[in-house]
Structures are given as structure tokens and as C-alpha cells.
Amino acid sequence: MKVFILGVFCGLLVACSAAPAKLDEVKPIAIVRSASENNADGSYSYSFESEDGTKMEESGNQKQVGPKPEDIGTVSKGSYSFATPDGVVLTVNWVADENGFQATGDHLPTPPPMPEHVVKMLADLKAAGLL
């Protein structure tokens, strides 16, 4: 166990000592547009665009997400886009609400379709009032 910890420590030390050389070679990317708004009711929005074409925007508001009045949460939606090293622009649109975080984008993987027997079973359960 001590050998393993020593090995991990040495690996981290080597990785950390090599990192500053790479960081010195990276040119900072300027922000060319930025906007931000925070309202008294808890709603907000912000966005930015950088000189390399990266864009990000988000907005949100407070919402009752449960049965009790004190079950307040923030629901948000937004998008971001960036160019890959080969110049393809990828965009992700997302929503974060009481149903969790849901992202969509043409480049993101999607699950395979449900088998017919599962679709039928779910329909039967719903018809029986069990779903």
C-alpha cells in the first residue's frame, strides 16, 4: 500500500512539474462580449462570447419544485458552443429543473430505442394504474 501511495505521489509530482511549461505556451483568449443580470425575484441571466467563437448563455428563475411552499429551487436553461480543433462548431442546449439536468446536441450520444416488449409492459402498467 505504501508503494502504491508513493507511486501515485511521484506520478502527480511529475505531472505537476510538467504542467507550468505548457501553461506558459497558452495564449489567453479575450472575452469580446459579456452580459449579466441579477433580479430581486431571484431570476438571472448571463452570457459571454470569446474571440475564439466560444459562446455561453444561461438564464434561470426561482420555482416551487415540490409540494410545499418552501420547496423552492432554481430552474435554469442555457446553451454553449465551441469549435473543435478541426473547426466543427458543437452546440449543447440544456435545461436543469426538477427533472434533473438534460442536455441535447447533435453530437451527443442518444440511447437506443426501447425494445417492443418493454414499451408494451410500460403501456400495460400505465393502463393498470401502476405507473
UniProtKB/TrEMBL annotation:
Protein name as annotated: Endocuticle structural glycoprotein SgAbd-2
Recorded coiled-coil stretches: none
What organism does this protein naturally occur in?
Daphnia magna
Classification via InterPro entries: Cuticle_Struct_Prot, Insect_cuticle
Q: Which UniProt keywords apply?
A: Cuticle, Signal
- The positions making up the signal sequence are 1-18
According to the record, the residues making up region (Disordered) are 43-73
